Amino acid sequence: MSSSQGARGAQHVTSGALLRSHREYRAWFVGDTGAEVGGQLVSLAFALLAFAVTQDLVLAGIVGAAAAGARFVAMLPGGAVIDAYPKRRLLAVYAAVRIVLMLTLVVLILTGTASFWTLLAFGILDGLLKGLFGGLTNAILPFILKGEELRAGLIANETRDSVISVAASPAGGALFGLNPLAPFVADAVLTTSLLWSSKRMTSRVDAAREAGAPRPGFGERMTAGWRWLAGRGDLLAILAILTVSNLGNFLAISSVELGLMSRGVAPWMIGLVFSFFSVGMILGGILASSPAARRRTPRAIALTAFGVQAGAYVLMALSAQWWWIAGLLLVITIPVIAMNSALGAYQMQNTPAEFQGRVGTVFMFVIGLGPVLAAAGAGLLLAHVGWGPTILVAASLSLVALAITALSPHLSALGTSDSGREARQDGEEAEAAKEATERAGGEG
């Protein structure tokens, strides 16, 4: 990195300025946003379609479970695929196949041939597609953005996702109510943004494997991310704290949902409670973009987030009133985007280009176990020990994450801000260049 590049990286970069000034990131953002909106539109709509066709909650649940299972199974092979082939080409292939898949479903609905078996097949294919390519856009991002720009980009992405989650899924349900075809046609149209995006990114996003380098077997490539990650104590520690805290958060979320339903709270009120969760994420995204927040080190941000979570869960254990839970969910989620963007940027910046897809999908796979385990654990804990102790389990998991963050020697690098790391790297590179010049002069 040159000194001028380091100076730019050390400056505070806002998400808005990044979108205005960085043409390649803007193209990436448009494509990723279109795909995210489309995916959220059909998430609820497909569940509604499965029930409308089968008229059976069990069969509709089987369709949804098969889609989720296929996605989970395909995640790790997907990382190897992402790292093995040119990413722009993969992006175009993913978009084209998804468009064809959505239009096929539209034809099935139009012709009245949609059935349990056809929807099951569609769900499995769609799950495999999302599993294989779900980590693709994230794997592309560190080829486009570096340093402070990467952190600003991650803040923008997570804030955008929170806004989409508030509006897109209900909109998908409303569109399905107007016309069952509408959300799936909308997804096909929105997915074309990925095709557009793939044509407007440069070839640098494809660089991962040296030209002419031998390609190992697929099994070896699929496990290479795990093997490389095993030697990185700092990234393993980050994976551990994110996994533990995610398990605690989803345990609390599942417990809130089940607890409120069991007490007969109206569905609209439950929806209102979880809207506070989304509002907290959006507010946190806005605050994370401030210069004061960006000057804080990743370690300090993580300690704050886990401390807030633990304290809020202790308070939540004291009362199961919906308004009390709603307010605490808002507080809990405010530091989340700042933490995720800081830790995510560190992970991406410290992962070699040839491992971005595989390491990213390892993180997605392991952290993704949290919602699965939490959904099962919440019901069991609520039935056997009740509300307060169940939420205290979530608090204890946040405290475990806090202790690892505070005490792990592997996370010492997280005590340095992005600008500090870049300044140190610039100094090291300048010193190396000086030594090389002196050696060349001596040899001359």
UniProtKB/TrEMBL annotation:
Keywords, alphabetical: Cell membrane, Membrane, Transmembrane, Transmembrane helix
Record's protein name: MFS family permease
Coiled coil: none
Membrane protein topology class: Multi-pass membrane protein
Renumbered residue ranges of the record's region Disordered: 415-444
Species: Falsarthrobacter nasiphocae
Localization annotation: Cell membrane
Record Pfam families: MFS_1
Gene3D superfamilies the record matches: MFS general substrate transporter like domains (1.20.1250.20)
GO cellular component, as recorded: plasma membrane
Annotated signal sequence range: none
Organism ancestry: Bacteria, Bacillati, Actinomycetota, Actinomycetes, Micrococcales
InterPro entries in the record: MFS (IPR011701), MFS_trans_sf (IPR036259)
SUPFAM superfamilies in the record: MFS general substrate transporter
Ranges of biased composition (kind: Basic and acidic residues): 419-444
Molecular function terms from GO: transmembrane transporter activity
Regions that span the bilayer: 27-51, 57-78, 235-253, 265-288, 300-316, 322-346, 358-381, 387-407
